Amino acid sequence: MKLISVVVPCFNEQEVFAESYKRLSDTLAQLDPQKYTYELIFVNDGSKDNTLQQIQATVAADKHVKGINFARNFGHQIAITAGLDLCTGDAAVVIDADLQDPPQVILEMIEKWEQGFDVIYGKRRERAGESAFKLLTAKYFYRFINRLSDVDIPLDTGDFRLMDRKALDQFLSMRETYRFVRGMVAWIGFNQTSVEYDRESRFAGTTKYPLKKMLRLASDAILSFSNTPLKIASFVGFLASIAAFVGILYALYMRLFTENFVPGWTLLMISVLMIGGLILIVLGIIGEYVGRIYGEIKRRPLYIIRDKFGF
Ligand code: UDP
Ligand code: MG
């Protein structure tokens, strides 16, 4: 008997929860009961609405269902991690609560898993109901990251994926605070493959990823997987020094070999301002990394669980 764990992060998902639970359990009930059993783990990521009560009621009614209740909102990537930490499956699937990732695809993922793949990620063929802005930024963002960093993060994927226990244990051994889960999973290697699917629009409710959270995810992705911004900082500094050197030669030449050296004030102001600006940019980039080092060095737990249900 193999246990399939399905982890669902939920943040203010009261409009979709019931439908999501129904579709997921209907899908998982199609698995051959001789061979598979399943657990459905809902992680309540500090919702301010009725989500928690719905999770509790579902745990009480269905023995397959378990719930984790965070002490506050820790974010999507951390919620996924908590669910994966506490799951006991031979394989674990991560899926969003909003039914944008069709539960049916899980069955295809399990088939691939049985063929011997360790990580099967969902690759989006179509994405319905997303703003043109989100589509465009997502598209170029992943291409940009792959250029910057040493790991190849598969294009057009999110966090919808199945992981074998072997790969999962390796992933869970990485306890970094700033987490970009899809990058980390790409980084561990193993036998990875994809299944294609059409991403649907949200069943109900609105996105829980406002621009601010998207930007935070993007900077975690870039800064956790690449030192290139630091290199850019020193490269820009280097170029600035060359420019400054040329400026010095010019100033000296004007002073020593010509009569009109007073107007040099303009050049002076320009170079002072330019160098000042560059220094601030470079400091800013370094500061981003230093901030992250500080965050990691505190070694805080990734999340705080208030209650567990059904475990
Ligand atoms: N989510 C979460 N914590 C957050 C934000 C989002 O657990 O702080 C969950 C959310 O409930 C959903 C999944 O992460 O199950 C993806 O969020 P959403 O669908 O809003 O993102 P989008 O599909 O718009 O990128
Ligand atoms: Mg969504």
Number of domains: 2
CATH topology of the largest domain: Spore Coat Polysaccharide Biosynthesis Protein SpsA, Chain A
CA distance, first residue to last residue: 19 Å
User: Taking Cα atoms only, what radius of gyration do you get, to the nearest Å?
Assistant: 25 Å
Mean pLDDT: 89
Strand content: 15-25%
Bound molecules: uridine-5'-diphosphate, magnesium ion
Arrangement of strands in the largest sheet: 7-5-6-4-1-2-3-8
In sequence order, what are the helices and strands, one letter per element?
Answer: EHEHEHEHEHEHHEHHHE
Q: Percent range for helical residues?
A: 40-55%
Total E-strand runs: 8
Please give the CATH class of the largest domain: Alpha Beta
Helical stretch tally: 10
Q: Specify the overall morphology.
A: elongated
Q: Describe it for me?
A:
The protein is built from 10 helices and 8 strands. It has 311 residues and is of the alpha/beta class. The protein has 2 domains: 225 residues, Alpha-Beta Complex (Spore Coat Polysaccharide Biosynthesis Protein SpsA, Chain A), CATH 3.90.550.10; 70 residues. The longest helix is centred in the C-terminal third of the chain and has 33 residues. It is elongated and about 95 Å long. It starts with a strand and ends with a strand. Bound molecules: uridine-5'-diphosphate and magnesium ion (MG). The site of magnesium ion has 5 residues, from loops. The site of magnesium ion (MG) has 5 residues, from loops.
